[in-house]
Amino acid sequence: MLHLHSGFAFVPDFVCVIERRLSIMQQLAPLVKSISDFFWNNILLFLLFGTGIWFTVRMRFIQVRRFGHGLARLFGGFSLNGKKADHEGMSSFQALTTAIAAQVGTGNIAGCAVALASGGAGAIFWMWVSAFFGMATIYGEAVLAQTFRTTVDGQVTGGPIYYIRAVFKGKFGKFLAGFFSIAIVFALGFTGNMVQANSIATSLEHAFGWDRLAVGCVTAVLTGLVILGGIGRIGRVSEKLVPVMALLFLGGGVLVLARHAAAIPAALTEIVTQALTPKAALGGGMGYGMAAAMRYGVARGVFTNEAGLGSSAMAHAAADVDEPAEEGMWGLFEDFIATLLVCTVTALVILVSGVYAPQTALRAIQAGTVDSSMVGAALSEAAFATVMGRWGGPFVAVCLLMFAFSSLLGWSYYGERGLEYLTGTSRWTGVYRMAFLVCVVLGSVGDVGTVWQLADVCNGMMALPNLAALFLLSPEALRLIQAWTRRQKSAPDRA
User: Fold this and answer.
1) pTM value?
2) Which pLDDT tens digit goes with each residue over 392-404?
3) Fold for domain 13-494?
């Protein structure tokens, strides 16, 4: 529910209308959750995981074979002040940082803690497995996004919308592309952004006592200053913000791990053992089991890297490169950075610091008595506090602020592209951006638990047509990658 302070009486009356709508959504929460759980537990996790395996096998483990080559390109293209993105596209590094900006959100800090509490240490192993195969999926998405991109009102654009139209002809293809577009507008433009804004406001209120509405208004203003400048400004800000926020969080994580270095081998052993043990027993005969570890680990991997959802492909479509397969190399590192680096550091910090009590967490889950201190950002804050003391909470809050803010920038762009396809023009972009900012304010002061469940449903709606198109177009992606690889081998000086 919304809690507005009297000092902000100037807030328009429509906020009260939205409050009533959110109240209705709370009543529908059980139904929305049931739909979300059905999608993700019974269908999507298997499809997303399977697609990653399919692309990995078809591309002969390209995430391994070409990792070194991609790493060289990453550091070679690193820049905090690259070329200005325009209607012709942006640099590959800007596309990568824009995609990472959207992927690295609150889930990378709070979500890992949830996975640990719900699936045990073994969930981290399956998160790694999911991320590994997801790298191949994102590679394929980036290649196809470049191949089937187009121009709308003079602006280069692309992504699943256009390669779905390419593989599914006629009215059915048009329907699926529209279906995807509607899903991404609602998932990222009008629901997911509320959750990210809520995370910013809640964390800053907890760490510094700041008013949530005031935080929401400031966040909306700062977000507006970026997104109102279009993809050019988003690209320029992302290329600066993403490296800084990643290095800050990873640096803090390394500090904690260094202090608890003696506990790292035991934590890694626990991760592998619980992941591969059918019934990982804890005290009293309880245990998470392999099934729970796999379920929550794969889910966390998917949620943090967006492999198979198709959203990040929109950023890669805007990159100005010579060949589609070249852009795929940059796509590999989205997954690597978002999941294999950031999420792994989060998980290890929690495990080695001693703040995670698996027996207590499991008993609370079974009894339905889980409180906020056992999961989410609070658990991460407690872990960092073992080394940083009273600064542990503020440190995590600042990291959450940057992570969530970066997601707002990327998600605004993705939703914009979806609306652009639905309307056939960019004339409604201004209206969309203002609505996006309104949702940021509302999300900051509201209870958005049900909204998050609705966003999960919309994410599932995005994934289904995208995965179908990826599977059918995999021969084309493979052909482009093989041709590019042959040219690279014949001209090593270009590598």
Assistant:
1) 0.81
2) 888 988 888 888 8
3) Amino acid/polyamine transporter I (1.20.1740)
